[in-house]
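Quick one, tokens below:
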């Protein structure tokens, strides 16, 4: 009996190691040594013109990974492509990835994948927003499929905790990963369309969502007036939209979550425990720290269903298949 358990352990270990060893840090050290620097300087130059681009790039990578794996499928243009699904309607930052790719094709043609550029740009975006940095395992190849009908995997701001949990679990991500990754909402903004229904006519009762802090409700109502103005946006972390910090979690604890799905993370005991830990993030204290956990969770997310070796292709242009 003992030997069967041992055998199972070895098989599982080999499976885990083989998945992780598909990507390696410094994959382009010999084939394109400037690759990471080119991505970094490109992201930085756009960031210096408009710091909100950081949030856009981080979200772009997440939306790429949840559909067909992290394979650049979200970058393909075309009316039936993934990028045109309703779930992807607010995505921004495509021009940054295209720009980095153009420079890399001039330096080392057919070497650096668009999927890797996305993963590197997400890391650089976080670092530029005063967040943590990490070594990004690279070696992803670009996919050959991009279909808007597959974007239903993506979470919706109306999803309950059970649905959020199930969508993340389907990608190998647990409760802690869910809370940690959604912590990306410490930067960026949302269209008022994803917020207004909570403010004026929640579940058609004519009231507001009772989980919203009362003073915050007035603030949100002034940011998103009840006139359906499509140009209005609101920060996902109303305390510091461009800083990668823990105020997003502190806000959830106080009923100041902007998206319904974010606020639900505080109400569930398992996810709420993680929110509580991150909200109390004090440098030097032991326990869960958002700035330690975020890089680990990102490396996990960036490894979802990646294509490596001879799978897929290295696109010449990120917005179209070869
Ligand atoms: C349950 C999971 C999630 C839901 C329901 C969700 C939903 C949303 C929604 C509705 C927006 C506003 C979009 C718009 O107005 O166009 C948004 C923005 C954003 N999301 Fe998420 N998200 C989730 C998880 C994540 C994850 C895992 C990441 C990254 C690791 C992420 C990163 C972002 C960022 C950075 C923005 C701001 C984008 C910008 O300013 O352009 N989100 N999210």
């Amino acid at each position: 009996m003992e030997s069967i358990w041992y055998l199972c352990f070895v098989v599982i270990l080999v499976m885990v190691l083989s998945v992780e060893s598909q990507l390696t840090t410094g994959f382009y050290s010999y084939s394109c040594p400037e690759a990471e620097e080119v991505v970094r300087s490109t992201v930085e130059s756009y960031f210096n013109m408009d710091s909100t681009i950081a949030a856009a790039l981080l979200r772009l990578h997440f939306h790429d990974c949840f559909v067909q794996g992290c394979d650049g499928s979200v970058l393909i243009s075309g009316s039936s492509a993934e990028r045109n699904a309703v779930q992807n309607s607010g995505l921004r930052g495509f021009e940054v990835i295209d720009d980095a790719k153009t420079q890399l094709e001039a330096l080392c043609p057919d070497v650096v994948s668009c999927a890797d550029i996305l993963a590197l740009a997400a890391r650089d975006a976080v670092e530029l927003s005063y967040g943590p940095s990490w070594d990004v395992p690279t070696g992803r190849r670009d996919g050959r499929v991009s279909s808007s009908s597959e974007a239903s995997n993506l979470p919706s701001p109306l999803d309950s905790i059970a649905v959020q949990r199930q969508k993340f679990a389907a990608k190998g991500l647990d409760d802690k990963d869910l809370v940690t990754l959604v912590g990306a909402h410490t930067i960026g903004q949302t269209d008022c369309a994803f917020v207004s229904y909570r403010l004026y006519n929640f579940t058609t009762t004519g009231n507001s969502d009772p989980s919203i802090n009362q003073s915050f409700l007035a603030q949100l109502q002034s940011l998103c007036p009840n006139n359906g103005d499509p140009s209005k946006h609101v920060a996902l972390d109303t305390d510091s939209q461009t800083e990668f910090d823990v105020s997003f979690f502190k806000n959830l604890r106080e009923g100041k979550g902007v998206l319904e799905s974010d606020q639900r993370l505080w109400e569930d005991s398992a996810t709420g425990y993680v929110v509580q830990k991150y909200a109390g993030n004090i440098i030097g204290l032991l326990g869960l720290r958002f700035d330690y956990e975020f890089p680990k969770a990102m490396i996990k997310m960036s490894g979802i269903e990646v294509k490596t070796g001879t799978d897929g292709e290295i696109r010449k242009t990120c917005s179209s298949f070869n």
